């Protein structure tokens, strides 16, 4: 049976490899060779083409591929009132090559609101999606992304001596921006949540403990933060959460199954569905799906976005059957485990391989669910 509301049986996380023309235009803009309007024209053209391709493949929900962003999280968070980016040493490391050393911190009280540029980014996606009869999906980082990587380094005591006040103000900021997305017509919003997945990794739990955090309490604190951020979501707006262990140029940050966070994840956080990384042994087994309540869905991230090798239909169907031992098949969907370009550099595969993988997701979903 197909689903009439997101997440869909065949779905996607969001980001796509940046086309060469877009990369060239962004580089030219950084060098001061073209104006902002010229870059926007290229972005609009390439996003429209990517959306048309997604619809052609058979996806029911489309994104802009995050083509206007350099980082999946930085471009959103640094435009919240009271947040700034700066050059510094990354505290959470990838296994190998590292992204640019750009960090985030609070520079003033949070909670105010000036028009976020991504509201207009969404309006463009919606205009394209409406013309094709598909759903426009928007992706933004989870509010936990402003805290976990940096801890107190991101939240000066001079501004927030009480961390509870920081969490309250951060949630208020998110409520205002999410309200603006809703007013612009967004009815499918995804929170990209890496930090609950990071808290499944013993090494990262130790790292958090070393700076004075209680990893177990962080899970409940983050659940409360996310719920507060989503408190005013309209009843007809679907919220999903993407769980990720790091995705930069085909490498990763964390390992460990979902067991340490699963019960809280599924039963204490007010979202409608979960995009869950399940493309490698680093994600553990499907047993944590036993905590999934009857009114929520899990999108199985069985297709890897990290390499170009195309998964076979038989292997994907077998793994879906394995997952269905722990959660009802009717509550499951299929997608890649992550986006293909969480940063503008992108993963180590070709655009043709990317589209083939998304096509395989649609093919298998049709076979399994009709």
Explain this structure to me?
By secondary structure, the chain is α/β, with parallel strands linked by helices. The chain has one domain: TIM Barrel, CATH 3.20.20.210. It is 37% helix and 13% strand. It contains eleven helices and ten strands. A six-stranded parallel beta sheet has the order 5-6-7-8-9-10. Strands 1-4 form a two-stranded parallel ribbon. The longest helix is centred in the first third of the chain and has 22 residues. The radius of gyration is 19 Å and the shape is globular. The termini are close together.
Concise overview:
This protein is of the alpha/beta class and 370 residues long. The protein has helices at 20-30, 36-57, 74-77, 117-132, 163-183, 195-198, 202-210, 215-229, 262-267, 313-323, 351-369, and strands at 61-62, 83-87, 102-106, 135-136, 138-141, 188-193, 238-243, 273-277, 297-303, 332-336. Helix 1 (20-30) packs antiparallel against helix 2 (36-57), helix 2 (36-57) runs parallel beside helix 4 and helix 5 packs parallel to helix 8.
List the defining traits of the structure above.
alpha/beta, 370 residues
What separation lies between the terminal Cα atoms? Answer: 6 Å
The radius of gyration computed from the alpha-carbon positions, rounded to a whole number of angstroms, is: 19 Å
CATH topology: TIM Barrel
Shape: globular
Relative helix content: 25-40%
H and E string: HHEHEEHEEHEHHHEHEEHEH
Number of strands: 10
Query: How many DSSP helices?
Result: 11
What composes the largest sheet? 6 strands, parallel
**What is the CATH first-level class name?**
Alpha Beta
The total domain count is 1
Unreliably modeled segments: none
Strands of the widest sheet, in order across it, are 5-6-7-8-9-10
- CATH architectural group: Alpha-Beta Barrel
Structural class: alpha/beta
What amount of the residues lies in strands? 5-15%
Mean pLDDT score: 94
* Oligomeric grouping of the chains: single chain
């Amino acid at each position: 049976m197909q689903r009439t509301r997101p997440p869909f049986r065949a779905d996607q996380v969001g980001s796509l490899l940046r086309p060469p023309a877009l990369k060239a235009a962004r580089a030219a803009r950084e060098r001061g060779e073209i104006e902002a309007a010229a870059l926007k024209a290229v972005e609009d053209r390439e996003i429209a083409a990517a959306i048309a391709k997604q619809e052609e493949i058979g996806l029911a929900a489309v994104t802009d591929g995050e083509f206007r962003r350099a980082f999946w999280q930085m471009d959103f968070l640094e435009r919240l009132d009271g947040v700034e980016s700066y050059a510094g040493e990354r505290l959470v490391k990838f296994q190998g090559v590292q992204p640019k050393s750009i960090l985030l911190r609070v520079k003033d009280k949070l909670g105010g609101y000036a028009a976020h540029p991504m509201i207009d980014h969404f309006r463009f996606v919606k205009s394209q999606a409406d013309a094709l009869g598909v759903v426009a999906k928007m992706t933004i980082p989870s509010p936990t992304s402003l805290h976990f990587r940096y801890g107190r380094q991101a939240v000066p005591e001079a501004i927030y001596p009480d961390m509870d006040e920081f969490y309250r103000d951060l949630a208020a900021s998110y409520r205002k921006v999410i309200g603006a997305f809703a007013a612009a017509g967004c009815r499918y919003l995804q929170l990209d949540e890496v930090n609950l997945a990071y808290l499944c990794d013993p090494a990262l739990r130790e790292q958090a403990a070393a700076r004075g955090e209680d990893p177990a309490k962080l899970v409940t604190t983050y659940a409360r933060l996310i719920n507060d951020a989503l408190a005013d979501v309209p009843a007809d707006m679907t919220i999903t959460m993407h769980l990720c262990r790091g995705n930069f140029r085909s490498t990763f940050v964390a390992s460990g199954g979902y067991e340490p966070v699963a019960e809280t994840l599924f039963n204490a956080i007010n979202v409608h569905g979960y995009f869950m990384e399940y493309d490698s042994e680093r994600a553990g087994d499907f047993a944590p799906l036993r905590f999934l309540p009857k009114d929520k869905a899990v999108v199985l991230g069985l297709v890897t976005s990290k390499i170009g090798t195309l998964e076979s239909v038989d292997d994907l169907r077998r793994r879906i059957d394995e997952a269905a031992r722990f959660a009802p098949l009717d509550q499951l969907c299929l997608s890649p485990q992550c986006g293909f370009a969480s940063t503008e550099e992108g993963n180590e595969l070709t655009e043709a391989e990317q589209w083939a993988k998304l096509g395989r997701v649609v093919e298998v979903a049709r076979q399994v669910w009709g």
